[in-house]
Structure prediction request, 79 residues.
Amino acid sequence: MTKGDSQLSGILKRYESDLLDDWVKKQLGAVSARPDLMKESELRNDSARFLKLFRDAAQNGNVTDITATPWGPLRDMLS
Prediction:
């Protein structure tokens, strides 16, 4: 793990709640938002899961190599 990896995971951990709130608001306010297809609670849960997996991968792996093992759970979520 490099210093950059550590800093990124630290920032994500420290501001995770704020990032999640802002991100969900932006997604709900997007022109492409489809509240008829996904409830806000589901969007929030999926977004929180993404942020957690991203933080975990950044903490445990190289942020420049998303093919590395620590990124597997995040890749699985996105596929």
Remarks:
- DSSP finds four helices and no strands in the chain.
